[in-house]
Fold:
Amino acid sequence: MHRRRFCGTATGSAVAVAVPLLSASSRPASVGTSDVVRLRDHVENLVALDAKRGGHTALERAALAGASEALGLQRKSTTQRVRQRLFAVASDFTATAAWSLIDAGQLDDAGKHLDRALTLAGMARDTEMIMQVWNLRAMLARQQGEYAEAVAASQAAQATTVARRSPLHTSLAHARAAIGLAHQGDHRAALRSLGRAEDALGKADANAPRATWITFYGPAEFYSITAIVRDVVGHPAESEAASYRALSALPQSYRRNRAHTTTRLALAQLHQGDVEQACTASGEVFTIMAGDPLPGRMRQNLGDFQRELITLAPSSRIVHEWTDRYRTEWSTRDRGNR
Structure:
């Protein structure tokens, strides 16, 4: 509900990030539930901004400012319950800052934010937040090429209380493990984990309330992860089919997810030798993201596509046309990622 309200009233990402938290002079002398609710609203505003714009440094700064305020209020809170909830909010803000860096492709400081977020989640005794941090740790490790760590983080996510109780969380943890295992070269284990993720997702209640951070996960995201795993283990036709299923299931509002999945579709087509079709699909990414910068993670995926494209058909006319467009798009959108 808060996210819908934000998306309907915000006029641009710069305005959204610039919305200040309460100044020290305007904060109430006592601290209670209303402060927690206000800060949670701000977290959801940042999550909505991330969904529209992608990770960037202004979002990271806004999230860290929110964490700082939550911790400042925690020192003034009067009840243990409120103190723990403020620790949880601070963890959520810090994890949001980490995700912003991961999505922007700025990985050096993301790990430090996640370490801090995990500590805060532990002090909050919030298993939902602990699961969120391990999920992000798995994503960060995969981007860094630390596949064993990615698998270990996914297994830590599986061991959380919320994952043991919730089929939705269980499914996500197994899906993350499948990606790590596929990149690690353990293809059979990767496909087993993918099967467990699918089984668990089938048991999840799609209408049950869920935390903001995991609203992205459902059939569409599962198919998108399936496309990654299938392509990495050498099944590009299955990857292409999963990509189409993901695109069909994605809500129209999930533009960035649609762009990422379209890139994966293009890679699967390229790995089957369908160069022209792959170039057409990958070119759609620029159309999908028209008006917004390309987050660093998306740029990296497109860079991978370009390198494989040139290797496969270095002298093809369509390859030269795609490369020219890629350079133009990269140049014109470069400032937006700052």
Remarks:
- The chain has three domains: 38-125, 147-206, 218-338.
- Residues 1-20, 22-27 have pLDDT under 50 and may be disordered.
